[in-house]
Write a structure and sequence with these properties.
The chain has helices at residues 10-21, 26-33, 37-45, 49-52, 55-73, 80-91, 96-105, 114-123, 206-216, 236-243, 259-268, 283-294, 306-315; strands spanning 170-177, 184-190, 196-201, 224-227, 246-249. With 333 residues, it is α/β, with parallel strands linked by helices. A 5-stranded mixed β-sheet has the order 3-2-1-4-5, sandwiched between helices.
């Protein structure tokens, strides 16, 4: 017989107690109540077993179990320190899951899960406006087949060292382009710390791109750099010399092979929607976006921020990220 989708009632527990007194089996009790055998077995074993089961005590235990569940779901409302932290970080653009993972890492405040924080938001009118993350879902146009370069000397991604996945200093690069003009946004991401570097460029001229990458990575540990086959990276040998590191390439039309920077671009699109004129942005705007992302806690970093992990590796220092205001710009072309 199919299990019911409700908790055991007081009357059912009374029936269980009486039938146990008559030495009936779990199977017979289950058939009588229309419940699963496992439901009856768990109920009895969790409340003293056959010899000590009492319906009144089991009912009281079940009541307090549900009470504690509801209290846990309202962990935000029940703790003033957590409540103030949650509302402050929501205003900074943090998601409930980001807040939860930071609470787990941060001591002295308490903890609330992402689910608890979302329930708190639903119970407070006006807080829903912070759950913005409305991403751009415009589909990309057809792939251009005339913008790749062919160089037999390139090193492809399968030749990249295996330690790329486990140590600091391995970067991925890509562009966010504008259909309105030649301007592009250069995006570089370090794979271990997730630290990001952004720069607006007037065009994708080889020399301009190489100089920008060298400038952005100056002062950082660079062991490898993974790029796609854009013609902007045609002079990759000069770039290797400037960085003192090896440059590797994805296979043509296999953008997922540098998935970290592709996913980063997806999040940057919150502030730089598709079909946006990049000339609408200033260097200060781009710096604000970069700073916000680098000081945003990450679940993949167990609640740490990219900036904190970068400082740990580059300078062997334990630091705490700055309080960074949420970038308000969202310019549409």
């Amino acid at each position: 017989m199919a299990n019911k989708k409700t908790h055991l009632s007081g009357k059912e527990r009374f029936c269980i107690e009486k039938m146990l007194g008559e030495k009936e089996s779990f199977s017979k009790i289950a058939r009588t109540l229309g419940r699963g055998v496992s439901t009856i077995s768990e109920e009895v074993n969790e409340n003293g077993g056959r010899a000590r089961y009492r319906a009144s005590r089991a009912e009281m235990r079940a009541y307090f179990k549900q009470y504690r569940k509801k209290r846990e779901c309202n962990a935000v409302a029940m703790n003033g320190h957590i409540l103030r932290f949650v509302e402050k970080k929501l205003a900074c653009g943090w998601s409930p899951e980001t807040i939860a993972v930071r609470l787990k890492r941060q001591s002295g405040i308490g903890y609330a899960s992402g689910k608890s924080i979302r329930k708190y938001i639903e119970s407070r009118s006006g807080l829903e406006r912070f759950l913005f993350w409305n991403r751009n879902y415009h589909k990309s146009g057809p792939k251009r087949r005339d913008v790749l370069f062919n160089d037999t000397g390139r090193k492809f991604i399968e030749e990249r060292p295996f330690m790329t996945f486990f140590e600091y200093g391995h970067w991925e690069g890509d562009f966010i382009v504008s259909k309105r003009n030649t301007q592009v946004l250069l995006v570089l991401v370090e794979k271990w710390s997730k630290v990001k570097r952004l720069m607006l460029l007037p065009n994708r001229n080889n020399e301009v791109v190489n100089a920008a990458i060298a400038s952005l990575l100056d002062g950082y540990t660079v062991k490898t750099l993974t790029l796609d086959n854009d013609i902007a990276f045609r002079k990759w040998r000069e770039l290797e010399s400037a960085l003192g590191a090896s440059v590797y390439f994805c296979h043509p039309y296999h953008s997922w092979e540098k998935g970290l920077v592709e996913n980063t671009n997806r999040w940057i699109r919150v502030f730089v929607p598709k079909r946006t004129d990049l000339s609408s942005y200033t260097a200060e705007d781009i710096r604000a976006i970069e700073t916000w992302f680098n000081h945003l806690p990450s679940e993949s970093l167990h609640g740490a921020t990219p900036y904190e992990k970068m400082m740990e590796k580059e300078y062997q220092k334990v630091v705490v990220s700055l309080e960074v205001n949420f970038p308000t710009l969202r310019i549409r072309g």
